[in-house]
């Protein structure tokens, strides 16, 4: 492994930044939206909850598009440091959200979460592109996916940290359950808990900043886009820690020169790009879009599942800090049992069985498990059958991660030309984030009970959980079909996949 690759893998713990808010939203609701005399603890109103999560999604989407484009214009390294500092500063800013009134606190939190998401969005195309351009074709898939898979450890680390913080505060500041004393269940110090959890995400980013600034620009960008072969060769020598012979240095210079004359400088909106890569871009955007609809909507059912198996007791039987502890513990268990194994199964197998096979298998199994949950849904709601429901639910997460959640990140970094690689990855990732917004918000309303008397406060009647699961089953089925638009890149060089060498040969 090249030194720069090792540093890059270590740096990707930063991906945990957009995974922490779910542990804090319940606490924010209790602190800032408490209603005296209510039988239930305070919770964020639907509009406020949508704003807190929506601005982060929108920030990520715009960051993916902007930094993806900028990474092709200015270079991967220059832009990478900007995204890292933005994430660090806004992570700290999120925890320092000021004011005493709910509107002030939530408004400043939303402001920082937008820019935090903007920085995270840039990290997607840049980290994938840098890794693809450093790696060799035999192990490229594993290296790129390892970047993405590191967020599994980030989720675990974030969950464990939240458990420790909440346990320390619970031991230090004792409070009765909500049903015993609704006001006393929220100690003043609880306001520090969510702030500390949000701010700690800045530290992994700060620790990796030095290593990222020391990374040289990728040789492929320098040679093929900046057209500086001498610098590209020097950078390759630095990364590989070998001396490249003089005659080897001259050879790529000819290829770069002839490329400039061959008409291979077509743009993103050109007919030539549409002819060569139009279906590829449709394949990467559609599969990422459909995957994230299913992936993010699955999180909506976690609270019911955790409650059903006793991992999270009724909210009124806990104080505010206890609820943070219980939620963090449950999410950490899910990550440990299904999320992390799924990620690393892909890392170990992606260069052996290929991206196409893993993505097709993942979507197919998610479809099967979703229908298996949906069709006999009434059966799974019975107390004696809830463990079976949890097993199937966990398997859908496993095959999402050992499947399209990993491959949709890898493939766009491999199949497009160097000068458009970061841009196309950003577009594909942005399509995924749009799907995440549909999944997180659309199904939040769609999954509401059909009986208006059972609908959560602030929502309207929906189609119910069973019908929502059926819809998600068809979404995964569409993902299976659109996978056939995505080419297999296993064992092929980046130039072979993008057909950049074809033009050099023709010239």
Report on the structure:
The protein is built from 22 helices and no strands. The protein has helices at residues 3-11, 21-32, 46-74, 76-95, 102-134, 140-172, 190-199, 202-214, 219-225, 229-240, 246-261, 271-298, 302-308, 320-353, 355-374, 377-380, 386-401, 404-410, 418-446, 464-482, 494-498, 500-506. Helix 2 runs antiparallel to helix 7, helix 2 runs antiparallel to helix 14 (320-353) and helix 3 (46-74) runs antiparallel to helix 19 (418-446).
Main attributes of the structure:
mainly alpha; Inorganic phosphate transporter 1-7; disordered N terminus; single chain; 507 residues
How much is the average pLDDT?
84
List the uncertain runs.
1-18, 246-263
What level of helicity do the residues show? over 70%
Question: Biggest sheet, in brief?
Answer: none
Helical region count?
22
Please provide the ordered H/E string of secondary-structure elements: HHHHHHHHHHHHHHHHHHHHHH
Distance between the terminal alpha carbons, to the nearest Å?
35 Å
> What is the overall shape?
globular
- Based on helices, strands and strand pairing, what is the structural class? mainly alpha
- As a whole number of angstroms, the C-alpha radius of gyration is 24 Å
β-sheet strand percentage: under 5%
Instruction: Please count the beta strands (DSSP E, at least 2 residues each).
Output: 0
Organism: Nicotiana tabacum (Common tobacco)
Protein name: Inorganic phosphate transporter 1-7
In short:
The chain has 507 residues and is mainly α. The protein is built from 22 helices and no strands.
